[in-house]
């Protein structure tokens, strides 16, 4: 594939490595939106990202946040989201590595938003086989930050997190921060006044070839980082099987193509938002009649 020309996609910050993945002085070759890039770690916190192949090489902007190294091909990118939970001193911050998923980035976001699959795909962990109902919730487009939020979500979970001691009615808030990033807040089993923050930032290598990074800022004094990563990765690997079998891999934005149900309110809001911003990368073009 050639490099995308879609200005909407190009003007997003996307992850290209996780911080710590590359030794100081070493480099990693990877790809975003069909463009080959080289990520060099020049210091403890310092990275340089340059394009290679095709046009003459150019240096790209870079920032390290939320355990990831981010870059953008655009001249006027949307700002990275603010997630203050990552600055709270007592939280466990972990990147959980990254997982390759062969589908479009939007399918990954939609899967993350979808509570209806918990009981079937994450049985006895995030959902119970006998409590499958998705209770109604609200979605909103927060225009000040241009994000999609789903609020007042609740779901019965047998083992909501590594720290959970038993079943609980988990409260969720979802936040779609860009076409390629989404996060959720879920109430902490041991402290109802606080929320765990769990993110997915997607690196689209090509239209249907992605790497998903899962930074988390969670309240859990007991579990080891290895346990937390294990829990998160095992959930995500269950999702990957489903995601890679979904057809078409590209996302159709024509509402007649896939009929949404009530549980899909957040995905309807997400698709409407994608359509309004006129993003083309990774989208299934409407077939001519
Ligand atoms: Fe899932």
Please provide a written account of the structure.
There is one protein chain. This protein has helices spanning 7-10, 105-113, 118-121, 225-245, 265-276; strands spanning 14-18, 27-32, 35-41, 47-51, 59-60, 62-65, 68-71, 92-94, 98-101, 138-142, 147-157, 168-178, 181-188, 191-206, 209-213, 216-218, 251-252, 283-284. The mean pLDDT is 92. Strand 10 (138-142) and strand 11 (147-157) form a beta hairpin. It contains five helices and 18 strands. It has two domains: 7-71, N-terminal domain of TfIIb, CATH 2.20.25.680; 84-283, Naphthalene 1,2-dioxygenase Alpha Subunit, Chain A, domain 1 (Alpha-Beta Complex). Strands 8, 9, 10, 11, 12, 13, 14, 15 and 16 form a nine-stranded antiparallel sheet that branches. It has a four-stranded antiparallel sheet with strand order 2-3-4-5, with no helix packed on it. It is α+β, with helices and mostly antiparallel strands and 289 residues long. 17% of the residues lie in helices and 36% in strands. Residues 111, 117, 121-122, 239 line the site of fe (ii) ion (FE2). Fe (ii) ion is lined by residues 111, 117, 121-122, 239.
The share of residues in helices is 10-25%
CATH fold type of the largest domain? Naphthalene 1,2-dioxygenase Alpha Subunit, Chain A, domain 1
Q: In DSSP terms, counting alpha (H) and pi (I) runs of 4 or more, how many helices?
A: 5
* CATH-level-2 architecture of the largest domain: Alpha-Beta Complex
Structural class: alpha+beta
Fourth CATH level, the homologous superfamily of the largest domain: Naphthalene 1,2-dioxygenase Alpha Subunit, Chain A, domain 1
Query: Strand fraction band?
Result: 35-45%
Q: What is the H/E order?
A: HEEEEEEEEEHHEEEEEEEHEHE
Please mark out the parts with pLDDT under 50 across 5 or more consecutive residues, or reply none: none
Shape: globular
Number of domains: 2
What is the chains' assembly state?
Answer: single chain
The span between the termini is: 26 Å
Broad CATH class of the largest domain: Alpha Beta
In angstroms, what is the radius of gyration?
19 Å
- What's the total number of strands? 18
Question: Main beta sheet, described?
Answer: 9 strands, antiparallel
- Average pLDDT figure: 92
Bound molecules: fe (ii) ion
């Amino acid at each position: 594939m050639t490099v995308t020309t879609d200005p909407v996609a190009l003007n997003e910050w996307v992850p290209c490595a996780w911080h710590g993945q590359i030794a100081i002085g070493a480099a990693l070759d990877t790809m975003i939106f069909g463009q080959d890039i080289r990520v060099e770690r020049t210091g403890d916190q310092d990275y340089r990202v340059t394009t290679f192949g095709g046009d003459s090489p150019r240096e790209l902007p870079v920032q390290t946040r939320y355990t990831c190294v981010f870059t953008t091909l655009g001249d006027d990118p949307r700002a990275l989201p603010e997630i203050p939970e990552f600055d709270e001193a007592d939280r466990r911050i972990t990147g959980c590595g990254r997982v390759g998923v062969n589908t479009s980035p939007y399918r990954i976001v939609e899967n993350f938003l979808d509570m209806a699959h918990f009981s079937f795909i994450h049985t006895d962990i995030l959902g119970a086989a006998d409590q499958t109902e998705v209770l109604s919730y609200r979605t909103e487009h927060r225009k000040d930050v241009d994000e999609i939020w789903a609020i007042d979500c609740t779901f019965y979970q047998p083992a909501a997190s590594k720290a959970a001691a038993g079943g609980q009615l988990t409260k969720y808030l979802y936040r779609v921060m860009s076409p390629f990033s989404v996060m959720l807040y879920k109430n902490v089993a041991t402290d109802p006044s606080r929320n765990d923050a769990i993110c997915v930032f997607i690196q689209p290598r090509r239209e249907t070839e992605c790497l998903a990074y899962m930074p988390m800022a969670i309240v859990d004094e007991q579990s080891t980082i290895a346990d937390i990563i294990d829990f998160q990765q095992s959930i995500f690997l269950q999702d990957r099987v489903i995601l890679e079998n979904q057809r078409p891999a590209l996302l159709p934005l024509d509402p007649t193509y896939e009929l949404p149900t009530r549980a899909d309110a957040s995905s309807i809001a997400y698709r409407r938002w994608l359509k309004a911003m006129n993003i083309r990368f990774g989208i299934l073009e409407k077939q001519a009649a």
